[in-house]
Each structure stands twice: as structure tokens, then as C-alpha cells.
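ESCALATION

Customer reports they have been waiting on this structure for their group meeting. Please prioritize. Original submission:
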Amino acid sequence: MLKLDNKPVLVIGLGGRGQAACELLRRLGARVVGVDCRDTDELRSGAEKLRGLGVEVALGTVLPPPGDFDLAVLGPAVPANSPVVLAVKAAGVPMLGELELGFQTAKCLSIVISGTNGKSTTAGLIERLLVHNHRKALVAGHRARPVCSVADQTKDLDFLILQANSFQLEGTEFFRPAVAVLLNLAPDHLDRYADAADYARATAGLFRNQQAFDWAIIQREALSCLQQLILPVPAKTITFSATDPAADLYLDRGLVISRIPNWSGPLLDTAHCQLRGPHNAENLMAALAVGHALRLPLENMVESLKTCTSGPHRCELVSEMEGVQFINDAKAANVDALQKALLTARSGPGGEANVWLIAGGRDQGLEFHDVGPALSRRVKRAFLIGEASEKIRAAWSLFTPCQVTASLLEAVAEAAKSAVSGDVVLFSPACPGFDQFRNYQHRGEIFCQAVKSIRRGALTGDPHMNGKITTA
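Update from on-call: job pushed to the front of the queue and completed.
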């Protein structure tokens, strides 16, 4: 347990997680100073709340304030090479991440989910399994509920379920999950990491401190990546895969099959589940593996998993008009997530391309060519928005027609005008949206509002209509 009473602590980065860290530190009795290089309306509002709690706040600063500090807490959005971080390190101040702070303060076992995509869906599945089996559990670690904001509640929990991205795992020291889940490793955040291997090394911090009696639940392909980079996984391991039949849990014609001793055979028929697509099959496998590690009865797990849904902004069917589906996949912030959305979208007649794709956002250094074959099979046209639109157009034009549009609203209107019965208008950005939107929820809400503003065309035999949807 950290002893911080009356100790001076610097918090670097005052986004939602940084603010939660400041609040927790004050409850622990620390004297807290918070800094952020940005100075926005949202941060100013948060700063006023923190000042009311006795936190000294400085916005728009790239250097640490004067004074000596016993500890620095780093928000995950702040890169390790930022001037303020380098200055604090040069001063010899011990530093830890907000995830580490929350973990060291928590008073129950933790189940931690990491990976490029699927963290929130899988965390929800695991929470449902535990609650259905009369265990007290809570999901935290994401922006909406930072781990530092719930640390005080953990004394009443059996398990704390944490979503942890690579940024958060960079700042860990003693962090050690009882059960660690790695869902996948696809190239991501290459505006922060030197390459995909560097990103994988950061994510592998999930397993660094585990012991032989802990559990590691790992997608088989991700485990192969870690092994190639000589990154050890010391815990008891269960692998899963929707494509590799050599995994401990694998997919065979829609059935999740186990080859784990004393737990072998069919576990779950995914055709009976609300979650669709190979990526969701892997999310279900990961949840089943966690339940097995915690010795939950299989029949109880299957019963609760069948009715789970992926939630808003994750391949969410917003509307169907004149046979055209409008799908909100606003959470898709990388190419791998887009590829999975294309696999999940319904097929066109005879397997023909039937997707009108809306994508784009902030460029984070990703290579967009990898999704090319899926685009050529599935996409009629891509409408591109945001900062990365020209880069994406250059990468995708070989595979599908591309059109740069000025806004998400314009893209929705153009796609709706072009779509005919049997088509899908899919919003799956493949990029973060911070160039135009507050977060993925904001851009998903804008997409949903745009879809709701569309009025259905009156099919009156007008030869120019061709059954297409028109906009007001």
C-alpha cells in the first residue's frame, strides 16, 4: 500500500484518468500538483473541480512546476519523451502510471484485458459471467471509469475487471493480474511506437510480473508474436483462436471446441449467440477461458453468454430503410477493427460487394493497404473524411472507388443516396477521430443522428429513384 500522506506528488496529464488519479491521491492525503500541456475548455472545467479538492493545477505548460516531488504519476496519453516527463526523470523523481497507482491501491484480485480490439466487449462478457455466478465484479480502466476512480470500492468486490491499453501498461512496475487476457495484436498507435514490435513489447507488460500460479489467456496468434520477440509469459496459459485449430479453444463450423484436459469437447454454439463474426467468437472464447480458470460451471457461462450484445458503437445496427442497413462501428480506431467489421457485415446477393464504407479520422501512422483485399471483395465505394482521408485514398484507390468528403454528415448523405436494397452503409473509421470529434462515442452519435435525419424515398415508379434512399 502506498504511503502518501502529506507527500508532494506531481500528476502529468489531466484527462479523465489523470483527474481520477489526482482525486485518489488527495483521498490518500497527498499534496497534489497537476499539469497538462493542453489548455482546453474541458480541461479548465476539470481543473476547477480539482482546485476545489485542494489540487494545484497548471494548464498549457510543457515543463514541471518548481519544487521537489516524492512521486510523479503519468497519464497514459502523455508520451514518455514529452519535455515535462524528461525533466521529471532527469530530476530523479520516481514515476508510475495511473494504472499502477490504481492497482496498488485496489484491495481485490484483478482480471485484466488488453489487446488491439475487443477489450470492452470481452470485459462486459466476463463481468456478466461473474455476476451471473454470484461474484461481485466491476469493470474499470477505460476513459469513462478510470481505475483510480473505483479503487475505494474494491474492498467490497471479488474481482476488479480492468481494460488496459498499451499506453497504460507502459507505466506499470508491480502490476500483476491474477488473470491476464490478451485478445489480439494488430499494428496500432504507430504515431507513438517505432513499429508493431515496439507496440507488442509495450502490451506484453500485461504478463511481466505474473507468477506460475496466475493465468494468461492469449489468442494463439498473439502468443506466437510474443514468442518471436522473446517476451516470456510465466503464467499458466490457455490459447484461443477462431482460425488456428491448434489452439486450446478453437472454432469449428461455429462451435467453440476445447481440447483442454478434463474440459474437452464442444463448449458453445455461436449460432445461438447475439454476438456475430469471428472476432466476437474469440471474445466469447476468451470469456469462457477466464470462467474456466475461475472454476465457473460451464452451463451457467453458456446461458449468460448467449444473450450478450456488443453494445453501442460496435457494429451496431442503427436502422434499416428500404432494405439498406446502417451500421455504426464508430469504435473501430484501426485497420484490424475495420477488417473485422467487413467480415461481420451481411453479404450481398451472390457474394457481390454491397458495402458503402465511411472511414477516416486522425492519422496515427498506420498502413492502410493491409485491408485492400477485403475492400475489393466487400466495398462498392469508400467515403473518406478527416485528416487521414488523402492518405487512405492513396492506399485504397487500387481496391475500391474512393471519394473524399468534407464531413461525416456529407458522407452519410452520399452513401444513403447511392445505396439500394441489400446494401450496407458501414461507418467504421479505421482511425481515431480526435481531429473532428471528442471521442468515438461522439462520432458514433453524430452518425446515428445523420441516419435518423434521412427520410425514406417514396417509390412511385420514378425511373431516377431506382429504389434508392433520398435525404431531406
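Sent to customer with the following note: The chain is about 30% helix and 20% strand.
Escalation resolved.
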